Fold:
Amino acid sequence: MKAHLAAVTFALTSFAWGLSSSALAQVTRSGPDASPIAASVTIPPGATVVNLSGALAAESDLTAPEGSLQRYGDTETQTRSVLQRLAAGLIAQGMGPEDVVMMRVYLVAPPGSDRMDFSGMMKAYKEMFGTPEQPNKPARVTVQVAALVAPQFLVEIEVQAAKVFDE
Structure:
């Protein structure tokens, strides 16, 4: 029995050594294809994990009054800006949006509303995640908050990304 167990262990180990590290360890996502988010994401041992702090939108209309909501745009515009900023941060780390495994989205209700603009956020989100060009989708939570750091901000997003780099 011990000899058989040793032979099986040797065979599995030999097989594993024959595969590249990327074939053994990949970030995996699961969930319905139609869903805009992953139900779960598994990060293998040895993957590089990067956490990007919450990002806010850049100014989108420099002709609007400084510090105004109009200067930063609506929820859709701000989401697009925030995702672009996060993508740039990931690129600086040798990663990209395809490597995002977890996303936390904080939304403020636009002035005159008591509900966050979830559909505006989703419109911009779907431009970057779950597309034919970039099919990877992160696990995600989206919550409405009372306020962010300043009244002109409607969106803040933080992400965690993971990637197995080939050696």
Remarks:
- Residues 1-23 have pLDDT under 50 and may be disordered.
